[in-house]
Amino acid sequence: MSSELIDRPEYLEQLIQNKDVDLVKIVTGIRRCGKSSLLELFHRYLRENGVPEAKVIHMNLESLRYRELTDYLSFYDHVSERISGDGKTYLIFDELQAVEHWEKAIESFRLDFDVDIYITGSNACLLSTEFSTLLSGRYVEIRMLPLSFKEFLRFGEFGAASTMDERFQKYLQFGGMPILREYRFHEARCNQALEGIYSTVVLRDVLQRNPQADPAILQKIVLFLCGNIGSITSPNNIGNVLSGEGDLQKGRGRKNMAGKTVDRYIGMLRDAFVFYSVGRYDVKGKQLLKTLGKNYIVDLGFRNVLLGYRDVDRGHIMENVVFLELLRREYRVCIGKVGETEVDFVAEKPDDRVYIQVTESMQVPETRDRELRPLRMIPDNYEKLVLSMDRSYIHSYDGIKSLNLIDWLLA
Q1: Is the dihedral of CA 253, 256, 259, 260 positive or negative?
Q2: What angle do CA 16, 22, 26 make, to 5 degrees?
Q3: Cα 407 vs. chain centroid, distance in angstroms?
Q4: CB count, 10 Å around CB of 372?
Q5: Comparing C-alpha atoms, which of 111, 112, 114, 113 is closest to residue 134?
Q6: How far is residue 133's CA from residue 107's CA, in Å, rounded to a whole number?
Q7: Which pLDDT value is given to residue 2?
Q8: Residue 191 in 3-state DSSP?
Q9: Contacts of 359 (CB under 8 A, 6+ apart)
Q10: Is 36 left (phi over 0), alpha (psi -120 to 50) or beta?
Q11: What is the pLDDT of residues 147-171, one digit of tens each?
């Protein structure tokens, strides 16, 4: 096994906590975000904790070694022959979506043998309705993301003289795909690597799974979403903009058709973990709203490769970083609507809620008032927080906390 594995202790700990629990462990996330390395680390953990190699069956189903195992029957037969009868066997399957109806084989392994099962996949179709029905309540999903800023600092190589702000700037530019550490921030090489990953995701996890999709329309929608990170949009208004540019269907019913088309394509991108869509929540009415939402990209490096790196949109870029960090911290995230104003994030756990505004700076009085107004209008006593790049001696405005974004990411 590679000694160059990037250790991701937070994710590894989740696998260890679920070890020998009678649930199928499913690690999902975009291609190349570190899922295979995580399974390698877990395999290593098993070995170091006394599990004999013969009791671990570890297969990457995208390897040509397993090219015959395209359906669940051949897959089941191949694995069953290798499971020995005495004691628990650990089954570790990488990129299992390559096997048709794999869920039938997984359920059968659970019924027929003493096994503990770990799976990865790069497409949310892995958790499709058939699978959820077959294994309802018998699996746990571990959602993996690219490197957090904290992890990025741990694995990047920086000059001794570089400041924390300069390191954060590199994170905003290059993103957190683990492979980039091999290129030591060489811009052209990093961009080539990101382009390669992005193309693979689009080809294998979007277009191969949706043969009816038009690659040109898909690319237009990706570019639109990248250029409008953190902006409130709807499939209809995206469709109208693109139709106006002559890129979607013309003719009668064009707007309607465009909205449905856009919605379908955004769904494909969500399934491949390229974008995350976030709905709006009426804070005072305490209900989710059906219209309008925001879309965030899984990694800013992809956005910068597709659009060219520009520093003009820092507020929305920072918002994207905060959104991903909230997911890592296992919050459920919505956008808040308070009367006619918006709160960037309403983040919830079963026993906790926090309201967050993100802005580049609070120094200008007009900006400060704009960011604080929606938070002041919220009548409950949950934590309210503004994150910015400021380093100020003022840490609170009427009970609303003001924190430096980097400090919050490293907390």
Answers
A1: negative
A2: 60
A3: 22
A4: 18
A5: 111
A6: 11
A7: 40
A8: helix
A9: 315, 318, 367, 371, 386, 387, 388
A10: alpha
A11: 999 999 998 888 889 999 999 999 9
How would you classify the pairing of strands 352-358 and 383-388? parallel
The rounded mean pLDDT for the chain is: 91
Residue 284 has a pLDDT of: 82
What's the pTM?
A: 0.92
Kindly tell me the number of DSSP H helices and DSSP E strands found in the chain: 15, 13
Looking at the DSSP bridge assignments, the partners of residue 295 are 277
Which neighbouring-strand residues pair with 233? 293
Residue for token pair 């160059």: 4
**Who contacts 400 (Cβ-Cβ below 8 Å, separation ≥6)?**
372, 375, 376, 384, 385, 386
Angle at 171 (CA atoms; ends 167, 176), nearest 5 degrees? 135
Tokens standing for residue 289: 């709203």
Contact 409, 148 (CB under 8 A): yes
From the number of C-beta atoms within 10 Å of its C-beta (0-12, 13-18, 19+), residue 173 rates as middle
Nearest to 229 by CA among 298, 317, 169, 344: 317
Q: Is 301 helix (H, G, I), strand (E, B) or coil?
A: helix
